[in-house]
Each structure stands twice: as structure tokens, then as C-alpha cells.
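Hi U.,

Before I forget, here's the chain from the pilot set. I'm dumping it here mostly so it's searchable later in email.
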Amino acid sequence: MKFAILAAGEGSRLAAEGIKEPKPMVTLQGEPMLNRLIRIFESCGAETIAVITNDLSLQTQKHVLQLQAKGHPVHLVVQTTPSSMHSFHALMPLLGEGRFILTTVDTIFNEDEFHRFIQAFSNADASLDGMMAVTDFIDDERPLWVSTMADLTISGFHDTQASFQASKAGGECRYISGGIYGLDSRCFATLDRCIQEGQQRMRNFQRALVADGFHLTAYPFSKILDVDHVSDITKAEAFLSNTKALKIIGIQRDASASPNRETADAAIFEAVAKRLEAAGAIVTRLTDEQFLNAFPDDNPTYDPSMDALVRHANGIFTMSRNLQTCVMLDIVERCYHIPCVNSGSGITTCSDRQQIYNRFHQTALRQPPTWFGSLYKERWPNDPVDAYALLDTLPYPIWIKRSLEHSQTPDDIIFASNEAEAHKALDAFARREIGEVAFSAHVQGDLIKFYGVAGEGFFEWRYATEAPDKFGLDSTSVTPHRYPFDAKALQEQCETVATCIGVPVYGGDAIIEADGQCTLLDFNDWPSFSCCREAAAEAIAHYMLMISRK
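Structure:
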């Protein structure tokens, strides 16, 4: 969608009260009002942002050109106009066909409400000609009153409530215009006519739309402010301090990394996103490709708006297992100081069985005897062990697993009862050009699956026979003996690992042996939580809100 900003006014009242900067450059919470709008528009996926300023505002002109040089999708029009309606008309050639958003430069609003407004306008029926932001918060010297029907269809625009009462407009008149307009290019004919007729002021154009039969609807905001006086700056600062919404990015897991779990993985991701939104956060859902477009180095698909979105995020939650995404997540945490759940390094650690094995050792956690070997020693001469050379030394039965990358197919984990079956399994890995393998001793006991969110008190476990099984590999499990064990101790052990490697959202497998000892088999980043999705989503969302507010 295209956006436009009306910034051609003189700001005479602010200047008379001692403000030296032109109105677009007045800062709120350390950010020029013009920059604030551009940032928010970019976070909404702005295709282009047209800005009009007057001939005398050299500082604003220079600033817009600098933003343009940095890759922001801004286009500058310099023209002194007699009214905001004329400024709008001057921007018309840049807005093209279809829907667009137009605002005045000093319109101050809640970002969360604005995002919802954009979503509502984008999803509205094609028959809608315009959606106008309105508010029942009245703090304007000369507000434009908006009368609406019960379904919020706009019936008229009025200089005063008394003029509404004298008019034939239906409905009620409790809102005023907020200076945020969602319009369709169908309105341009009316705008042209207003200019030709010598009309003045934006409100007269809006009245002409109603007179021409355009279908307009109101979208209520809790509060919208204008900055016309020095006192308004203080009001706007206080308002933004109290209502600034958290901006959180969610990076989805690609279907290729969700074998047999695509629907379940998508469900937990969306459950977390919706809970964050319900708490007032602005959640932007991204794919790996979209996220990676935020980084300019050697990137032909670099997207400045995505760059701005990432840089201004308060937090990132991710189910991605893309290696490049993980690398960039670590850079974002280190350089932008934006918390990421889970961390990129933690995700990659979980994809490497030898790293996980070493971390278990560091934290003194019980795990089955495990050996690592290479099937292509000639390719990697520094690998310490030839996998085939291990076969006659292993205790059977044994599990043979792909050592690098997350398991993608049932053939990535093979149970071998003897050396002949193990040799056959290695041949199968070699044919698939899987070079690194892990051999884990089979441990007798009850196989359980666990799920947790570190620091949230959330920890669930299920016997493997009662939990979703991605590949059917738990077929070797028998009806559990239900050996007693200390689940609290297991949770503490898992949280130790989670904190150590940077994976607060985790899951895995363990064996409960007859003596109650817990032996950890696998530790994974962000499982599907299929058997406890709602409780997990609540815990993850709470964790995200907590770390994003720091």
C-alpha cells in the first residue's frame, strides 16, 4: 500500500511560541514527528511514502532527501499550497491506482491501533471508498465532527455539533476526525472538482465525498492528538509514553523444516502471535526470506523497510531452523540488542548432536553412552573416527542418528539390533550423502517426551505412547512401566540446559529407568507442543512480553 504525509504547513503557532524547528522536525521521545510516521508506515509494509513540504522548509527538504538516500521509500514534493486539500492534490500523481493512506504530519496516535486500522482497511470489501480514523477524545481548537450511523458508515462532516443537529445527516455525532484517511483512487475525480471550484480546506473535500455518494466508514481510535502548540508536545510525549505498543517480530518455520508437523508447528506459532496481540503488542509475521531481506550486505533483495522493521523491534520470537537466519539472529541480538527467542546459536546447537552431547557433559546431565563418526573420512581428514571402524566395538542394540541438522525423515534415526543391521544403516546414510553420524546406546526404561519454557514455571511431560510421534520411531516403546521419578528435578535439569545454550522454549526426550534415574536422549528447540499447545503459548507469550519490555 502507498502512504502520503501532508507536511506543507507553516507551523506558525509553534514558531510564535519559540519552536525553531519546522513542525515535521519537532521531536517526540527523541524522534522527529516525520521520522515517526515513516517508521510506522514502513512497519506496515509501505510500498512508497510521498511527502509534501513547502518551499521555505529547507531543513525538512534536506532531511527527506537524506532518508531517501539511505534507502527509505520516500518521495519528496516541494510546493507551497493554500490548504491541506491542495497539498493532497499535489501528491495525487504519486499515489496511483488503488488504496492509499494519507495523514497530516502532526497526527499522534497509538501504533497498535494504527496497525489494526491498516489491517481493517486492507481487508475491507472492495466497495468501500474510504475509511477515516476518528476519536471521541476532544482536544482540538476547531475539530471536524463526524456523524456516523450504527454500522459506523459516515453520514456527514460538521464544523460543530450544532451544525450536525441542523443538518439532515442521520445517525449520531460523537466523533471528530483524526487526520488519518484511508482512501481509494476513485476519490480523485471529486478532489479535482473541488480544486477547480476553488474549494479550500480538507474538510470541504470530505463533505464533497459524502455528497457524491462515496461509501465511507469511521474507524474509532481511543485518542488522536495534533501538535499545534508547545503544550501539545508535552501532551503527546505523555500519551506516547503510556501507550507505546511493543513491536514484536515472529519468524515462521519453513514447511521443509516441519516434516509431518507443518500444521502443528503453524498452530503453536499462531497461538503465540495471537496472545501477544491480545496483550497489545504489534506482531509482524515473517518468513525466513523476508527476515533476511532486512540485511544489506551482498544482498540483491535488500529491503530498507524490512531493515527498519527489524531495527525497531522490541523482540523476536522464531521457530526458524534456517542456518542463515540463525546467523543473522545472533547479529541482531549482539548489535541491535534485540532479544530473540530462541537464540540463533541455540537453534544451531540443537541441530548438532555432538554439541548437545558436550553441553550435557558440561552441566553433568545423565545421557546414554554416545560415539560420533564420519562416513566420508577422505573428505574431512580431521574427523577423529571412521564410522565403519566403530561397528565391531559398539554395544548392541544401538541407535544410529544423523548427527548434523535436525531430523527430516524417519530414516535419520535407525535402530540396529546387531552389527549387520548397523552396517546396513551406515550404507543407507552414505547413499544419502550424510557424512556425520552418532551412535547412542539403547537405554531400557519408560520413554517420555517433555516440553518447557524456561523461567515461566511451565513444564509438561508425556509418555511417548501418549504423545504425538513425528516419525513413528517410538514404535519400539512398550506400554510404560510408569517408574516413579522426580519430574521437578528433570525440569531443573532441562532449564539448566535451556539457559546454557539459549533455548528457553524447548522440548526433548528422556528415558526413565527402573531406579527413577532420568537419562536425556534429545534436546530440541521449540517443539510443536501439540499435547499442551494452549498452556505453552500462554507461557511463551508471557516470556516474550517480559523480555521485550526490558
